[in-house]
Amino acid sequence: MLCGGKKSYFAAAVCIIALTSMVTISYLRSQRLSHQPKVLQECSKCRGKIANSTITPLKDNRTFIISPYFDDRESKVTRVIGIVHHEDVKQLYCWFCCQPNGKIYVSNAEIDVHSDRFGFPYSAADIVCLEPENCNPTHVSIHQSAHGNIDQLPRFEIKNRKPEPFSVDFTVCISAMFGNYNNVLQFIQSMEMYKILGAQKVVIYKNNCSHLMEKVLKFYIEEGTAEIIPWPINSYLKVSSTWHFSMDAKDIGYYGQITALNDCIYRNMQRSKFVVLNDADEVILPLKYPNWKTMMSSLQEQNPGTGIFLFENHIFPETFSTHTFNISSWNTVPGVNILQHVHREPDRKGVFNPRKMIVDPQKVVQTSVHSVLRAYGNSVNVPMDVALVYHCRKPLQRDLPRESLIRDTSLWIYNSSLIMNVNKVLSQTLL
Question: What residues contact residue 110 under an 8 Å CB cut-off, 6+ apart?
Fold first, then answer.
């Protein structure tokens, strides 16, 4: 009646709103239906070669699969961590094989390219597919077409399918180790600091390192602390050792660091209460608490509903050192002795200090290096008097004299335990 004959602005507005709502609902329904899994074929069993590499290229050479993960935080989906060319890859499909009936379901994938691409043509991406109902697939194949032969496609195990109790409190994710990495002494010191502060596991995405460093990694693997993820990304893409395309026009930035960090979060989502995201030359150093566990317990109590905790990065330049803790037996080991670097650069006016993070992995959807892009919980910037990122590296403010630096010996609180632990590692590996 109202739409039929009354010539009023109000009636017209109501008609427009009603029609728009109907069209929108119809569109959303059709979009959801287009992503619903469809039965393509039936077979007696699931075949196809199982992919065991960390990085698997598809035939288009524009899509690279890292690993699929089951994610039921919103709906029952398989979320595949991958790398795609942000312009060339427009359509992908998930192929699920359901046992015991042997039905092959194909889902139209949503390709969610991460926003922090920093100008590079290749980027971290989530390839997300709705799973078939009444089926808990153990493997998935990714294909450019909804048609074909599943026997010809590589199959990937879907991880995180079964919920498990946390096996550790803290896992550190380091990505990526490259450039024939040989900063052996600082790496050992960082590893021992992580253990002192509460880490039970350190996951390292390794591209390459020195022979000496390999011996150290072998020690930590056998100890049960280190998990090494092979990261041969330069076998497939031209990689940059910088963070922005304008600095080095290659395929992907910083050896695919962002992809590795996202994979590490999902890899540890069901086995670690917290995931620590920092580099091997960085330590998130508590200043008011003896370790990460007491610090995070307090921070969570003060910030209910928060899943992302960001810590301010501060540079302790390796060009300025003190004679204290000049341990002779360490002088033959390549790398930096962090105990001798206790002067930090002052804040630069108008310059933002980047942050590193400790996160609840179950609240993270997508992460970048210095912030989380999508999450279910809140984020909080942890004050510098509570904790800071001790970052010993080449100076950023190269022209500063020593008197302009700030003496900060917070690290020395741990010196006795650190020296003892480092000596133990060196005695069993290098000395």
Answer: 35, 126, 127, 128, 129
